[in-house]
Amino acid sequence: MCLAIPGQILSLPATPEQPGRVNFGGIVKETSLAFVPEAQVGDYVIVHAGFAISRLDEAEAAEALAEFAALAALHADEAELP
Amino acid sequence: MKHLAEYRNPDTAKKLTEHIAALVTRPWTLMEICGGQTHSIMKYGLDRLLPEQVELIHGPGCPVCVTPLECIDKAIAIAQRPEAILCSFGDMLRVPGSERDLLAVKAAGGDVRTVYSPLDAVKTARDHPRRQVVFFAVGFETTAPAAAMAAFQAKREGLANFSLLVSHVRVPPAMEALLGAPNNRVQGFLAAGHVCTVMGYTEYEPLARRYKIPIVVTGFEPVDILSGIHRCLKQLEEGRHEVENEYRRSVRREGNQPAQALLAQVFRVIDRPWRGLGVIPASGLGLSPEYADFDAENRFEVGGVSAPEPAECRSGLVLQGALKPDRCPAFGTRCTPEHPLGATMVSSEGACAAYYRYRHAAHA
Questions:
Q1: ipTM, two decimals
Q2: What is the pLDDT of residue A78?
Q3: pLDDT, mean of residues B110-133
Q4: Which of A35, A44, A68 sits opposite B16 (nearest CB)?
């Protein structure tokens, strides 16, 4: 049930009741976008039981990766201490 | 694929584990709540990358595993009715009931169908107006919105031949039950990323304060999990107990509001039994009075079905984090994925199945 792989929206439905099309690394699934009304074509979404439950936030993703990089640099500094 | 490669980067994972090793000064026990996280931990061997003082125990985060036996028996009773089509997620088909599983009912001629989405069950009801179509609605707050949408659509279309056998459960009351148990060993929680994607994390803030326990909302990739562990341990070492959000690319504090609005419309909060944990107050979702007509328990009069848990299966202790799967006497011998004693070995998300797949098989 837990599918943690993000999919990319290929097309939006004509009405919210209909499914959109989401690409999971080459496998395209019909997916309800009813809970992510703000989502646009090209956005990445997390999907559960046929429903997108979040639109991935690119800025937050970039910030988290920057934090990991900063953490690694901090550790490198600590390692150099006598 | 985007949003995966960066979070599976071995160099980043290695740096995080080095940082964790430098941080830890004494023993700590953390629990991950979600079965998806348990599988990532076992698949990537993350527990083996941690310092010896850090123990990961696995929580009740597999929806199939926590579904009580009596609920499986209710589904089986419905599936045996000639007028019924029982639609279920695939994982539920092999979970043993008291006497048989849904797959055996299907083999004996019962109309049991696997669906990817609850909306597939609504379509089945539309396509078979002379049959009674039941969706077996199990799972946490992640899958409940999908079931809610199925009920909402069926009601709007006036589908009189569609109903739901509901066994949805809510995570925060289960976390509180574990924290309040006399054998509790949990000192920090990795909260389930996708439950929080739907519900946000305001419900966890009073828990963190009351039990003085750090709770870190965590994703599913190796770097996510190591980062969640790092944040949790940092709080413990510094004597803090806050809710932090490691999975910010998916989780907002307020969660997914359209999904929550539909949940509030279709369901109401009720007490529910959990396999191995007993009845936990306010831990379940049942249909609201407005949707009472869609309750399969009433429609098929299976509300009175009850069943004791099998004596040899220790799923309950595993789900409480009190027993590691490979310490169970039946593990890998009398209990295997091919011949499971209980749900934690059946479900692809179960802790016993994760240990069997990634540890037992490797040493067999």
A1: 0.89
A2: 56
A3: 97
A4: A68
